[in-house]
Give the backbone structure.
Amino acid sequence: MAVEEKRMRLLFIVNPGSGSDDMDFKSVIDSFFSDAVHTAEIYELQKDCNLDQIKAAIQQAKPDRVIAVGGDGTLKLVAECLQGTKTPIGIIPAGSANGMAKELGIPADINEALDLTVTGEPKEIHAVSVNGELCIHLSDIGFNAYIVKKFDDLAERGMLGYAKATWKALWSHHKMEVEINLGEETITSEAAMVVIANATMYGTGVKINPEGKLDDDVFEVILVKKYSFSEILKIRFTNLPFNPEKIELFHTKKLSIKARHKAHFQVDGEYMGKVNQINAELLPAAISVIVKPA
């Protein structure tokens, strides 16, 4: 005798400005669930929307699961609304770079990703509070944050836009002087960037944090002293350790970073301006995400 599938209420929070494709997500979602036992409601983000409006939409829908349709920035918005609750968050990767989707093994094919929103299992993961911002993926100060700023200034989306932003940043970014306090240890160094890493890789696929786990009791800090393409290629394609003269990795639950001069700063792909002070601490079991069944 077949087991009856549990009926679920799903709320899809769609960022229409994500990515470079002109996909009509509403039509695709409606079509996918037209014959399903589950009900799917769609909330489309407006340009000037705020967290209170999104929270109100979630409260009104009373969903069993909330699905972020967009990139890491869209996921961050949804996570901020559901932080501390047990409501699972699903992901439809539709951004220019989908770091957390890649991290969690979410299929790039939209129909497969939609199927996972109902067949997947909830998994609690930790997050990091970075200057009061919820970070579920990667935050950094320096070179990569400058790339994010350059990318935001470009009309082009997608990986071509990232490539152009990276090229511009390579020619104009300067090193920082930083002091990193990890509690019992203080490091003073020149740096191209400092990464606060909850996850392992950027949306481009570059694995900057090979020791990262989303459900352990620490996050990682990666001090990139020299921006080395050979080191990044080594990280991506081999299991060789970092060259400590170029990149160092630390584990911690709490940290502060001071830069001599203000530097570019981003959280989960969202540019936050220039800062010279960063404070970060672990947020255990902050959110629940939908992943493939074990």
